[in-house]
Write a sequence for this structure.
């Protein structure tokens, strides 16, 4: 059920029936020269909507705001000041909770959001909320990695690659420009390899200065249907698990009871 498609009575009923709202987290960024700027939003939101058809939940409208500082040097990228971004996401989650949802799933559709969303999950321990926050992603299937790999011809993936382009051909073929795919695969340059385990904010740019990682030339819609099917299966199962979960909310209540006792004079 898509939030923006429901009438007010339908929405209220959906809140009571499901108790779960899923927010697909994407960004606006360059995806080589052949995929649209909104690829992460378009694919992530589509996968979430399909999963929510299988395991009923309310899907928040497409969300284009995330961590994409590494894309600021390319046309079409939209970034927000980090503190504003964190406030925005918290404010959206709070409004979802105010509308009656007891569980909010942030489903990541963009690799650059991963650290930020885990931090936001940790921040939920700062202040008690009327909802439980969960974080997952819509672009990996670790439990079916061998099946995923078998569906593809290339080995290097990461951005606008064979898998992401194939999924895009399945979801919105009219937006994919196959004739604009670079003629050579984009392999990581490893310009910061000498730092080994040291992390820097520009690690992505160091490896992928053209915002392209992999080789999209073998991409097909048929492959995309296989890959998308695995992602939808995983997310539907995750929504089902979250719906049934009573432990995380109980632990949150216990945590904040103990925290409040510490603050009493």
């Amino acid at each position: 059920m898509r939030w923006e498609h429901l009438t007010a009575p339908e929405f209220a009923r959906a809140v009571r029936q499901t108790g779960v709202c899923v927010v697909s987290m994407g960004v606006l960024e360059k995806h080589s020269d052949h995929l649209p700027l909104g690829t992460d939003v378009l694919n992530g939101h589509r996968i979430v909507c399909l999963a929510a058809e299988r395991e009923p939940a309310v899907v928040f409208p497409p969300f284009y705001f995330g961590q994409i500082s590494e894309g600021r040097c390319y046309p079409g990228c939209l970034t927000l000041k980090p503190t504003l971004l964190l406030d925005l996401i918290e404010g959206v989650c709070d409004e979802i909770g105010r509308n009656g949802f007891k569980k909010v799933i942030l489903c990541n559709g963009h690799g650059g959001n991963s650290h930020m969303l885990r931090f936001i999950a940790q921040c939920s321990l700062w202040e008690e909320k009327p909802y439980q926050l969960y974080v997952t992603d819509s672009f990996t299937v670790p439990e079916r990695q061998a099946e995923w790999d078998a569906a593809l011809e290339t080995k290097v993936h990461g951005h606008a690659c064979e898998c992401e382009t194939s999924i895009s051909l399945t979801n919105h073929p009219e937006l994919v420009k196959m004739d604009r795919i670079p003629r050579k695969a984009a392999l990581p340059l490893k310009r910061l390899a000498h730092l080994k385990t040291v992390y820097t904010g520009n690690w992505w740019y160091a490896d992928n200065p053209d915002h392209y990682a992999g080789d999209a030339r073998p991409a097909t819609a048929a492959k995309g249907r296989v890959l998308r099917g695995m992602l939808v299966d995983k997310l539907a199962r995750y929504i089902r698990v979250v719906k049934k979960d009573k432990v995380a909310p109980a632990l949150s209540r216990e945590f904040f009871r103990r925290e409040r006792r510490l603050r009493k004079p």
